[in-house]
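Usage example:
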Amino acid sequence: MDIAHKDSTTLMRRFNPGDALFALALIGGALFALRQYGDFMDIYDKAILLLTVPALAAIGVVAWKPFRLFLAVSAGLAVFSLSLYGGDLARAEQAFFLKYLISSQTAIMWMSALFFIATGAYLLGLAARSDFAEATGTALTWCAVTMGTTGLLVRWYESYLIGTDVGHIPISNLYEVFVLFSLITGLLYLYYEGVYATRRMGAFVLTVISAAVAFLLWYTFSREAHEIQPLIPALQSYWMKVHVPANFVGYGAFALAAMIGVADLLVRNGILISRLPPAKVLEDVMYKAIAIGFAFFTIATILGALWAAEAWGTYWQWDPKETWAFIVWLNYATWLHIRLTKGLRGALLSWWAVIGLLVTAFAFVGVNMFLSGLHSYGSL
Amino acid sequence: MRPRSTSRALYELLSSMRFAISLLTVLGISSIIGTVIKQNEPYNNYLSQFGPFWFPVFEKLGLYSVYNSFWFLTILGFLVLSTSACIVRQTRPMLKDMRGFREHAREASLASFAHHARIPLLQPRTEAREALLAYLQRTGFAVRCDERDSSVLLAAKQGSLTRVGYFLAHGAIVLICVGGLLDGNLPLKLRMALGGKQVTSGNQLIADIGPESRLGLDNWSFRGNVFIPEGKSANTAVVNVQDGILLQDLPFTVSLRKFHLEHYESGMPKRFASDIVLTDPATGQSIEKTIEVNKPFEFAGVMMYQASFEDGGSRMRMLAHDLRPGHGTSAMPLEAAVGDSLKLASQGLDHSLELGSFRAFNIENMATDAPESEAGALTRLEKHLGSGARSPTRKDMQNVGPSIQFKLRDSAGQAREYQNFMQPILQDGAWYLLTGMRDSPSAPFRFMRIPMDGEGRPDSWFEIRSVLLDTSRHAELARRFTATALPASTAGAVRGRLEETTRRTLELFALGGFDGLGKFIESTIPAGERDKAADVFIKILEGCAWEAWNLARSAAGAPAPTPSPTHARLLRDTLNATNDSLHYGAPVYLQLTGFDEVRATVLQVTRSPGKPIVYLGSLLLVLGVFAMLYIRERRLFILLKDSGEALIALGSNRKSMDVDERFEQHRDAIAALLTPPARP
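Running the assembly step on the lines above writes:
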């Protein structure tokens, strides 16, 4: 991504009818949502909804064209699901498509299955040196993120069907954010796969997604965590809509960077050299992922501070989650300093990115498991 | 010259990357400590956790308030110092670098760039120069030309703003730290040290606290809590400092009209809100406002937040049922407010009642756990398909009504804690009053179930129990039981033996409950016959309970009970509860009969002068990070030589793959420009 100096003529040349249609659909969708659901939003919710349009447009038009089709299909499936529901939750049991395809739980189950198969395909591609298997992996990953996005969108709607006072965006507890994490990591991976035109990193990144999905399934089947819960007062805020997604772009990118780090370490030790991209490429992807993760993690932490100031009366109070977010931030700040200012390259940075994932995972899940604090609504 | 070089060396160390990275690492590791040890707990908790040896050591190290400790603030101070030194050190060279075009670069140095290429120049110099200037402008470069003897150098650059990003991001760190310092407890510490303020203990009336523990209206940075019961007002906040408190005067009076507490069906809290009235003492004007979680309000420079809520002294009406054997079934009315400590001294009691808390409702899952059927994997999966709304395990959330929690302390100072529900609760098909008891605050409550009689009252239980446990009535009970249990024709000796056994059974039960009987059976009856013996004893007890009920009813002038399954169940429950009551540990059972609830809100009030500085710093940080990571500085040099050759070199402040790509693009585009199209 090179946002500073795009040749303006090339940008215009690349703006095609598909882009226009995409932008129009985004605007139309936002206006429809405002008209249909505006009563459930305060002024900030509306502002966030409207700002989503240029943000998604920027991703789809400028940065990453395939994003347009993905979003269109996900939204289309979600709208289809909504129309099947027709305002009645019990339809989830009766309508075939809802029960077996696009009700929220079913869609998330599909996402889980597709991510597992995609991981298998990528691993097979790596082991059997099969380009076809890897292409299958890509297709399956696209299907998985589509089903996951549809699932979350439908879950959003279902929460309002339970009761208008219960309804909320589905990024409020550990179950929901694990779905979000899988989605965002998957999307980030697909982006880099496209930009670097190589599918060879898939086996590594999809492995970490599969681990997240495995946790998600355990959480569903043994803890019944998938049940939609209403929001406690502290979480009833528009800030959630910006704080949580920004955070998970950070977590997702750090997870991706760590897995690329693993691939890089293998290559540096002479393993799978013929099959994996050269260290130079891996190093570049790792840097790009950490850079975008760091930028978004910075934003997320600041948004969290703004929210904390409103909900708890202080923007920073060294709550365990805040402190660990700070530690994660310090960790990647140091990583970037070493790479950019010291100009260091090589195995050390890869090792560091891998260990960084452990720190990130602790901040994400470990704090909820082992430490108590204000962020305790995601407990295990 | 020596001191100067030392300070120079110090400055260089402070501003060095190596120092900064070490600092970041130390900061990260030391902030972990505060997440492992719970911060700002009451000191007693630490004392019991770490023991008398380590407690003072950890206190000296500031581990109970790591982020306010001297050493942690020192590390942060060094971070500010190091970042500032780094900025100062970098300013001059960076500005120079930003402004300069390096248009005097020599050919030899250009040729040593990692990205450079020589291409033929087939055009006149001036013509090529114009074409290149247009190209560079179009692709976003600023250019400066340097005419030389037999050549011209076009020195172009773009993305110099990335250097501004450096200043923004690093300046932001300093701003955020300074702002955070203003809002931390350092101003308070300074005030206490310089202004002679002293913390005081929280166990006294606010009016009794003297000026040496009060902070005035001129205090510009504080964080405190205001406690206001419904219908009352307050104009001071309590600031917690270490193990004591300080009072903070507020520039207004805040009174609470009503506190709203709403719940979802599941019992999860839904809304906490305070309807308050704020009055300015100077003007006498007041405004009404509702403060909720996530909806704070600022008044007279003070931010107010809904922090929590408590009981504001709800009044409870209770009946104290005497449980001591031989005291009959007297019940004494009592009235107390939550938070009160009350002496129970009548009728030979020597106890004190500490009424701890009151809950207006309790929402419990009343579903009876159906046994998990042996379902296959497919059915299990199917249960988790569909909407996210339904729960595969059935839940039945019900409000089981109000409850109180209190402590009873005996004359020896020994206290037990109790939890009593006001309304009977349906369990296993019958209604019970539940009362829980525990010996220590960490233990779970053990519940005694007092059965309700046909009129829906607990009175029958008190009556039967009182007769059963009264040793002076055991002989009468035994006689009546024997009379109904044996036919009239039974021989006198047999009759006498049964009567004796019954009396003995009652005595054992009154003393030790089922346990007492069990021990008796184990010590006197051979192992093979114990089960049979236990059955006999239970039969005897049930029969006696029936006779006790008859006695109680006739004493009250009520008709005798008739045998029925409901009554049999009541008798069994009565025996169980009577047995439990022997381990209840209290001389009275407090039945909650009525209440007037008064809630209180706790508002957090703050003045945080550093907030705008921190927010400005945060904004700059985001701008700076994006500028540093996503604006790429590139320098493109094109040396046009009269000898018919052009030298292109691309420099970048970062080495990354897209520099290679960019170089190839520029090289090819420029090569095309410099080579006139071949004539067809």
